[in-house]
Protein: Ferrochelatase
Organism: Azotobacter chroococcum NCIMB 8003
Amino acid sequence: MTDHALLLVNLGSPDSPGVADVRRYLDQFLMDPYVIDLPWPLRRLLVSLILRKRPEQSAHAYASIWWPEGSPLVALSRRLQEAVQAHWHEGPVELAMRYGSLSIEAALNRLAEDGVRRVTLAPLYPQFADSTVTTVVEETRRVLRASGLELELEVLAPFFGRAEYLEALVQSARPHLQQGFDHLLLSFHGLPERHLRKADPSGRHCLSGADCCRQAPPEVLARCYRAQCLRSAEGFVRQMGLSEGQWSVAFQSRLGRAKWIGPYTEEQLDALAARGVKKLLVMCPAFVTDCIETLEEIGQRGREQFRAAGGEELLLVPCLNDHPAWAAALAQMCRTPA
C-alpha cells in the first residue's frame, strides 16, 4: 500500500439501544453547534429539556431495528469500508463516525501511526449541510491542529449531482422499482429553514420564492441543501425514465418547533393515501446507509401511518449501503474529490 488513505465518515450511533447509551449519544449529537445553531447557554438548556424524555423514546426505536452485530448504520458502514478497499489501491481505507464510538481522532491517529501522509476525507453525505458535511470537516481539521498530525488533507465535495453517485443510485434501486408501484416518494432528511438562510452566500436567494431552488446560481447551489436534494431527485428519476406524476419529493425527521423545509414526509404519506395510492415506494437519497431514520421512521412508523390513512403497502427501498456499484463509485469519486 502507498501513503494515500481514504477516511469514510458517517453520522454515528449509540453503542447500544440502552437508555444511558442513547442519552450519551444524543447529548453529543445535539450539543454540536452545527446541529443546533444556538448560543451555548440556550443550546445547553434546550438539549437538557430534550434529554428528559427523548432518550427513552429513541431507545425503543433503536431497539426495534438493532441487529445481532449491533447498529445497522455501523455494521453497514463497515461492510462499505471493506467493499471500497477492494477498489482503493492507493492506501488503507479507514472508517469513523462523527458522534459516538469510532471517533475521527482515533482513525486519524491510526493512519498517522501507519505512516500515511495524505488523506482524502469522504463525508458520506451526498448533499451539503453545515449539520453534516461542515461539522465532519471542521472536526477533522480540529483534530489535526490539536494533535499536530502532519497529514495532507483533501475533502470529497458533496456529490449530489455526480454521475457516479446517480448511476449507483439507479443500479441499487432499479430492481425494487421494476416490481411495480403506484408512486415513488423521495424522502430526504429535513433541515430548519434558518439553516438554509444561514448557508446562503448571497444572503437573499434561499427561500425567496417557490422556484428559488431551480433558479439557484452556482455559488448558492454549492451550499443550498434543498436545491441539491432536488437536483439529486431529478437526476435519479431522469435516469430511471420516470414520468412527472410517478414521483414526488418530501422532507422527514423534523425536530422541535422551528419551521423546517417542506413538504413534510408525514403529511405527504397521508395525502398520497387519500389520493388513492395503494402501493408506495419510499427512497431516502440523503442517506447512503440505512439507519434509524430509514428503517424505523419510514420502514416502521411511516408504513403504519400510510396503512392507517388507507394505503395498502409501503415498501422501503434500501439505501446504497455496500452495493458493489456504490463502493466502486465512491472510490472513483475520491480520486477526483473537488
User: Anything to note?
Assistant: The two ends are 23 Å apart (CA to CA). Residues 163-316 form a domain with the Rossmann fold fold (CATH 3.40.50.1400). Residues 120 and 154 are 5 Å apart (CA to CA).
